[in-house]
């Protein structure tokens, strides 16, 4: 599949004291703008020197924030999304606590069709600009939202999915213009951000073992991975590769998918390359501050500043160490769910072996497996991370994905973590909502088996 990269038309800058430039910066001659504005077919020159017509878009598929859509390349990479990435621990350098993490996760996963509970005021769009001219340079400051507390896209989800399916990986790599062997390195160079405006892209779903191009609109609030030019390359709710939006061949294209409140085609944007990004400047999704971070997934050097560039101290929101553990955090459920609870500061490990594949979900391999199995809760690990007085570990396979066969459950008393004795634990296994195994309270290490038909 060959992607056509439309030339950037204009670059719109944010109108603030930090951005003294005007709204629009013309990059191509006025004659080219006139051609596209008139709706004529764009012409590109191929490598062989032959003139060809660039593909155009006559239909747009609307993709709400939390809708994986059809033909997803992977399970969602967004933390705590349905069947997706588990809630990560906050980055130590951010100074944040679990309250902030929970708030971020909630905002990343709004009800499908709802607007994400994020303040998008940092990006000001002109009200009457024609959609063909709503093209923004990817390096424009505050084009994206973000956070320095957690990564909003879990690269491991997509790496494991593509690593387990050669044909899927080949189709994905072809869209991005990398070899299969270079997928991990390519992903490690991308930066997780959040769209602040409804954005037109060419998305690619996995259908019939090939990547199928679909002209799409991603709702504001969508988590994406962008490259060093700020160009979206992956939609994190599906793992689907995305590329430049193809020009519209009609000022009023057909729309498909679920429309969200406030959607207007005239207020959508496209994003094109402008300058290499040395540091991303992102609107913090929790505060009025800005997140300054280097390209890539590493958050360790990121920092918060105010609109004038002055350092901002984060509000930690740390829980009182004397408070009992919060076991009300939703646990993943599905066709199979294995849950262990215990009563002291011990580090107790749960491991579940998936039938057929032999994949062992555990503290160092949390999934997803090729069947969507995950370990989404792992308390009191490691011991030096302020263990709570009691804990929970949970593994699950989503509805319709649990493989048939015999599962092996191992429970290990790993460490006392300051406790005076071994933790007294209870394990419960549910298969399609029915309890098939319940043991405890007891202590020590044990192994169990159960079978799913």
List keywords for this structure.
453 residues, mainly beta, 12-stranded mixed sheet, 5-stranded antiparallel sheet, 5 helices, globular, disordered N terminus
Helix content: under 10%
Radius of gyration: 24 Å
Work out the number of β strands. Answer: 27
Taken as a percent bin, the fraction of beta residues is 25-35%
Number of domains: 2
Major pleated sheet? 12 strands, mixed
Total number of helices:
5
Computed structural class: mainly beta
Q: Which regions contain 5 or more consecutive residues with pLDDT less than 50?
A: 1-52, 126-132, 315-328
Look at the structure and give the mean pLDDT.
Answer: 80
Order of adjacent strands in the largest pleated sheet: 14-5-10-9-13-12-11-8-7-16-17-18
Shape: globular
Distance between the termini: 41 Å
Explain this structure to me?
By secondary structure, this protein is mainly beta. The protein has two domains: 56-305, no CATH class; 336-452, Lipoxygenase-1 (Sandwich). The protein is 10% helix and 31% strand. It is built from five helices and 27 strands. The chain has helices at residues 30-37, 98-108, 155-163, 166-176, 183-188; strands spanning 10-12, 24-26, 43-45, 51-53, 59-63, 135-137, 144-146, 191-195, 199-207, 210-218, 223-226, 232-235, 240-243, 254-257, 270-272, 280-284, 290-293, 303-305, 336-342, 347-353, 360-361, 374-378, 391-397, 405-415, 425-431, 434-442, 446-452. The strands form six sheets. The chain has a twelve-stranded mixed sheet. Strands 22-23-19-25-26 form a five-stranded antiparallel sheet, with no helix packed on it. Strand 25 and strand 26 (434-442) form a beta hairpin. The chain is globular. It starts with 9 loop residues before the first strand and ends with a strand.
